[in-house]
Amino acid sequence: MDLGPADKGPGVGSGPRRQSTAAVVACLVLVVLLVSCSSPVGSPAPRAEPEFETYAALGDSFTAAPYVPTTSLASGCFRSTGNYPSLLAERLDARLRDASCSAATTHDVSRRQVFGLGDLRASVPPQLRVVRRGTDLVTVGIGGNDEQLFGSLVRDRSGVELGDAAAVAQRTGGRVGRVLRAVRSAAPSATVVLVGYPRLVDPARGCRKMPIGGADRPVLARVERALNKALARTAERADVLFLDMHPLSRGHEICSDDPWVNGQATDDRRAAAYHPFPEGQQAVADALLALLSADAAR
Fold first, then answer.
1. DSSP 3-state assignment of 134?
2. Catalytic status, residue 61
3. Could you count the other beta carbons within 10 Å of the beta carbon of residue 273?
4. Which GO biological process categories is it annotated with (predicted)?
């Protein structure tokens, strides 16, 4: 409001006092501007949102996630519309090229994956084909099918010894390292994330959904830890991000009250046997978004 001469009061219109008042007003304006431009006391800093235009996903059935919920045959890959790459791409508003495929090994990233049933044969191109020079983001979730590390234990509990498991995990880590180097070569500027596997078993808890004896459960738990440690070391050597789902999935094992992975019976509306439920895929997508946001803020 503009004050007229009658409203100014005595002595305000001239001299040093006028200059002093002007200085005080200027300081107050500056303080208001500084306060309005800063975050409220105690409020968290806004999280940096990662920005990616193109996203390539490589992986095995823990990435393809059959029956979560709608599944495309995908030439034998059984890739679902609710897998974590699809969920993450939607959150990032990124264009997704998903080459994940059930039963894939590290070998299938760079060579054709062949499916066979009797005399019938089919194949899909190498997964690496979806990684291009301009790709912004690549996630890799692979290794569990190499040397049947998980499969042999889940199917027949063949009693892999801890020493054997550690050696197998180390060899698997070496092969995953070659995959990561190939990804880096194909997309030098991409952010690359190696995604670890969730916990399948709680050594202290069994159930009919996972009929593994009390003596075998600790063995499988050690195999899981050995594999994830090998993957963590591989990611560090390759200088890529690593999403360690092993600690994040504690309390969500197959026999838990809130499992992220299905047991021995396939549910064609939720998950294949011994494969991730929708909740597990959502958990991976959420954890990836948090990891990428933290990386963007650095």
1. coil
2. yes
3. 15
4. triglyceride catabolic process
pTM: 0.81
- Of residues 279, 285, 286, 283, the one with CA closest to residue 69: 279
Task: Check if 246 is active-site.
Answer: no
| Contact between residue 84 and residue 285 where contact means Cβ atoms under 8 Å apart | yes
Tens of pLDDT, residue by residue over 184-214, are: 999 999 999 999 999 999 999 989 998 888 8
Please, are residues 103 and 60 in contact by the beta-carbon 8 Å criterion? yes
Show the tokens assigned to 109: 């990233």
* Sequential DSSP letters for 74-124: GGGT-EETTSHHHHHHHHHT-EEEE---TT--THHHHS-EEEEETTEEEEE
Nearest CA to 240 out of 164, 181, 286 is that of: 181
Catalytic residue among 61, 80, 100, 102: 61
CA separation, residue 65 to residues 82, 166, 198, 296 (Å):
8, 26, 13, 28
CA distance 9 to 235: 74
Fold of 54-112+126-297: Rossmann fold (3.40.50)
Mean pLDDT to the nearest integer, 270-284:
96
Cβ distance 276 to 198 under 8 Å?
A: yes
Element (H, E) at 222: helix 217-238
- How many residues are given for the chain? 298
Bridge partners of 207, per DSSP, are 210
Q: Catalytic pick from 75, 189, 275, 293?
A: 275
Tell me the HSE value of 159 on the side-chain side, using a 13 A CA sphere: 2
Domain boundaries, given as residue ranges, for the chain:
54-112+126-297
Rounded to an integer, what is the distance from CA 65 to the centroid of its chain? 14
Percent share of the chain, pLDDT over 70: 77
